[in-house]
Design brief:
Elements lengths: L9 E4 L8 E7 L3 H5 L3 E2 L19 E6 L4 E10 L2 E7 L2 H13 L3 E4 H7 L14 H9 L6 H11 L2 H18 L4 H21 L6 E6 L6 H9 L17 E7 L2 E7 L9 H16 L2 E7 L20 E6 L6 H8 L4 E3 L8 H13 L20 H6 L5
Parallel strand pairs: 1-7, 8-10, 8-11, 11-12, 12-13
Antiparallel strand pairs: 1-2, 2-6, 3-4, 4-5, 5-6, 9-10
C-alpha cells in the first residue's frame, strides 16, 4: 500500500554508489517512521516498541528489512521519529532494492546534494550552528575536491571564510550609508568585492581541473613537454614530424591544483586529411582551454617573433614556451630572455620547468597568492559557484 503524505518523506543515499562493506540511507520527513515500519521485522520482542514510535534516542536497533524474497539485516539509528538512519549491506543491488521498497511505500528518492541545499535549519545539524547556503554549497562540493589543497579551501568556505568576508562587506556598506562622510568604508567594501569576484578564477576550479592546451609547430617538443610536466610518458614522442595526430589529455597536479594537459597535433601546411583533422581538433582545444602553451623550437627561431597560429582565441591567455634552449648559444638565449611573456625551457635537462609551472599558475589564477607559502588557507575566502559569482555584485 502506498502512503500519501502532503509533505514528502525523503530517502537519501548518504554513502557513494558502488560496492562497499556498509551503506547508509537516511529517511527524513514527518512520515519517515510510518513509511519504514511496514518493511521491518524485529527479532526481539522489546524492539517492537519502535513500531509505536517508542524508542531510546541514539540507541541502535537491529532489524530485518523485508524485500520480495529475502530479509536483509539492517541497523537503525533513530535521531528522531522523522530522522532515521538505515545501515545495510554495502552491495549496490541491496541498497537499490531497499531504496525502491521505501519509494514504493511513499518516500521520495533524493540525492544528498539536492536535499542538503533545500532542507531547513536547524533540523539538519541539531548539534551545530545552522549552515548558510554558502556553507552548504561547500559541503556539497567537498567530496569532489581532487587534491588536498582544494579540499582545504572548500573546508575553509564550509567553516565560514567566504560568509565572514561577505558579512564584512555588508557591515562596511551599512557604515558608509549611515555616515555620508565615510568614503573609506565604501572604498574598502568595493576593494573586497573586486577581490572576491577575481577569486572566482580560482574558486571554480576547486573541483574542476584547469585546462591547459599545448600548441605549436611540428617537432617543437610539445609531447615531450607534456610528459615532463606529468612525470610520465603519456604522449608518444619521435623525431618524425607530425607524430601527434589527435589531442591527447592527462590529469596532473601543479602546486596542489588539478590541471588537465592537452597535447595537440603540430601545425604545418599539409594536404594529409588526418593531419588536417588534427589541426581542426586543436582549434577546439584552444577554444576550451583556460591557458595555452605555445611551444616553439629555439633552434629554428631566427627572429624575435613567434609564428602566428591560425584561429587563435584572443580571450585565452598564452605563455610562449621556447623549448630546446640548451641547444642554442648564449646570445640567442639572452635574446629570448629579454622578451616579455617568454619562458625558456629544456625538456631534456629540466631547465625552466619550475619557472614555467609558476608562470602557468600565476596566469591561471591571475594572482600569485596561492604560490605564497604563508597563505592562511583557513581564512582564504573564495567565490566557488556560479550562483555566488552572479549574486555577489548585488551587495554593491
Amino acid at each position: 500500500m502506498i502512503l500519501r503524505t502532503e509533505t514528502p518523506c525523503h530517502v537519501i543515499r548518504v554513502t557513494p554508489r558502488g560496492r562497499g562493506a556498509v551503506a547508509t540511507l537516511f529517511l527524513a520527513g514527518r512520515d519517515a517512521l510510518a513509511i519504514l515500519k511496514p518493511c521491518l521485522d524485529f527479532p526481539h520482542r522489546d524492539q517492537r516498541t519502535v513500531a509505536q514510535g517508542h524508542f531510546v534516542s541514539n540507541a541502535p536497533v537491529f532489524a530485518y528489512f523485508q524485500l520480495a524474497d529475502v530479509r536483509e539485516e539492517v541497523v537503525l539509528d533513530f535521531r528522531r521519529c522523522d530522522m532515521i538512519e538505515l545501515h545495510c549491506h554495502g552491495g549496490d543491488a541491496v541498497v537499490n532494492a531497499i531504496e525502491a521498497a521505501l519509494v514504493e511505500c511513499g518516500a521520495v528518492a533524493r540525492t544528498w546534494q539536492d536535499w542538503l541545499l533545500e532542507t531547513p535549519e536547524p533540523e539538519l545539524f541539531p548539534h551545530h550552528k545552522p549552515l548558510d547556503v554558502i556553507q552548504r554549497e561547500a559541503l556539497q562540493l567537498l567530496p569532489h575536491a581532487e587534491t588536498e589543497l582544494t579540499a582545504q579551501l572548500l573546508l575553509a568556505q564550509y567553516h565560514g571564510a567566504l560568509s565572514r568576508r561577505i558579512g564584512q562587506v555588508t557591515s562596511l556598506l551599512e557604515s558608509a550609508s549611515n555616515d555620508t562622510s565615510s568614503g573609506n568604508a565604501l572604498q574598502e567594501a568595493t576593494a573586497i568585492l573586486d577581490s572576491l569576484l577575481q577569486s572566482y578564477n580560482s574558486g571554480k576550479h576547486l573541483t574542476t581541473p584547469f585546462r591547459v592546451g599545448l600548441i605549436g609547430p611540428v617537432n617543437a617538443g610539445k609531447s615531450s613537454l607534456m610528459n615532463a610536466l606529468l612525470g610520465f610518458n603519456r604522449s608518444i614522442t619521435s623525431q618524425v614530424a607530425g607524430t601527434t595526430r589527435d589531442a591527447v589529455s592527462a590529469k596532473t597536479v601543479i602546486a596542489g591544483w588539478p590541471v588537465t594537459l592537452i597535447d595537440t597535433a603540430g601545425i604545418r601546411e599539409t594536404s594529409n586529411p588526418i593531419e588536417q583533422e588534427g589541426f581542426a581538433r586543436m582549434q577546439t582545444v584552444m577554444a576550451d582551454s583556460d591557458l595555452l602553451l605555445l611551444v616553439t623550437d629555439a633552434t629554428t627561431l631566427h627572429s624575435d617573433y613567434l609564428p602566428e597560429i591560425p584561429g587563435m582565441f584572443p580571450k585565452v591567455p598564452i605563455i610562449h614556451v621556447v623549448n630546446k634552449i640548451d641547444l642554442v648559444d648564449h646570445q640567442a638565449s639572452l635574446r629570448f630572455k629579454n622578451l616579455t611573456g617568454y619562458v625558456q625551457v629544456s625538456v631534456l635537462t629540466g631547465i625552466g620547468l619550475k619557472q614555467l609551472c609558476r608562470e602557468m599558475l600565476c596566469t591561471l589564477h591571475k594572482t600569485d597568492i596561492f604560490l605564497n607559502d604563508h597563505t592562511n588557507l583557513p581564512e582564504t575566502a573564495l567565490i566557488f559557484t556560479e550562483r555566488q559569482y552572479i549574486n555577489l555584485p548585488l551587495f554593491g
